[in-house]
Amino acid sequence: MDKGESVYQSLPGNLQGKLGTKAVKEFVSDFIKPTSDADKALKEMKPIYIDRAHTFVKEEDKKAEKKKQRSKKERKLTAREKRQLKVYDIPKEAHQYRLFEPLSQLWQGYMSRLLSQGQANFEQKLIRADFHGAILTVIQSSNPTYIGVQGIVVQETLSLFKIITKQDKLKQIPKNSSHFSIRINEIGKDYTIYGPQFVARPAERAAKKFKPKPSIGL
Fold first, then answer.
1. Is position 6 within any domain?
2. Which residues form the signal peptide (predicted)?
3. In a shared domain, residues 195 and 125
């Protein structure tokens, strides 16, 4: 072979297709029982393709099957289905104040971390904060029966604070018609929460900008 000549040149026509066949026949002849016909065994062998172009199952079929399986897994419940299944309902046996006291302690720790960042903008941070675990007291309401009710926030919706009282009662307090008091143990201070200002889902409230107001009427 000349210097620089490629080792990957095609074999001469008289050799192509013969070398491999000869080797396979010799191998089969050596290992198949003498009573067997080597040529017959070769003809009955099924080829195995390693080239993607010869795949028995088309790529399109595979992709379609994967997409179908993925769509089944990714289907989410609608809001109506969640209500019917009572996904967000707190079971009756969980209406116990003591069960949520650890959550309240975690919330006070959360407030301590916010305070450690400086008190200058703490009020704005408090308005945007997650209130699950906070102890709220109703100090003003258009419904007199709510005034004085106190408990741990266990759920917040667009228009309600759901709290568990020390009497193990679940109360649903409308935001739009109530004002609340909240105590921060770290500094021993009470803050007034104006319910109408909180009529938003927690995630939306976290991104909302609030204008300072001296008071908000019901």
1. no
2. none
3. yes
Q: Has residue 62 been placed in a domain?
A: yes
Query: What does the pLDDT look like over 174-207, one tens digit per residue?
Result: 999 999 999 999 889 999 999 998 888 888 887 7
Nearest-angstrom CA–CA distance, 70 and 59: 16
pLDDT category at 82 given cuts 50, 70, 90 is: confident
For the cut 80, the answer to whether the pLDDT of residue 208 exceeds it is no
Expressed as residue numbers, the domain containing 194 is 92-207
- How far is residue 113's CA from residue 12's CA, in Å, rounded to a whole number? 80
Listed in sequence order, the DSSP H helices in the chain are 19-31, 38-44, 59-74, 79-85, 97-116, 122-128, 202-207
Same domain? For 154 and 115 the reply is: yes
On whether residue 67 sits in a domain, the answer given is yes
- Which tens digits make up the pLDDT trace of 145-160? 999 999 999 999 999 9
